[in-house]
Amino acid sequence: MAPEGTNRRRAMRRRRFLSRVVLGGLTLAGGYLGLKEWGVFSPAPFVLSSAPDQAQVERVVLKSFPYLDLDHDSLRSFSKAYLGFLRTFGRSPSKQDIEEKFLLSTDFFRNGADESQTVRFVSLYDPYYNPCYSPFREA
User: Fold this and answer.
1) Contact 92, 47 (CB under 8 A)
2) 47-74 tens-digit pLDDT
3) What residue spans define the domains of the chain?
4) N or C end of the chain, less CB within 10 A?
């Protein structure tokens, strides 16, 4: 038979272990709920269907940038190029992805981000496909 102090010592270790597990679980749950409240775990806003059409892409751009003077032929060219990019790489688009690709694919930054100038499509921005084009480069 084991001495009396040994059994009590093991019970204390078990209690300490269980209390730390519970405390750690509560900490993780609280952190998750806090980050969820800040929107860290939320999906990308306005995720489009897996196969958007040209009109959907154009609508997103027009709604996102109503203050820009957009060249509509350039907008059509961008939406065709963007849809080709999606088909090639099998990505699912989001509103933010379309907005970023559009601005980086136009001469908006080349013109100093001047909202009064007409925005025209240059080429689809993809640093792996056309690495020499830099929209932030000064003209």
Assistant:
1) yes
2) 555 567 778 888 888 888 888 888 888 8
3) 1-42, 54-119
4) N
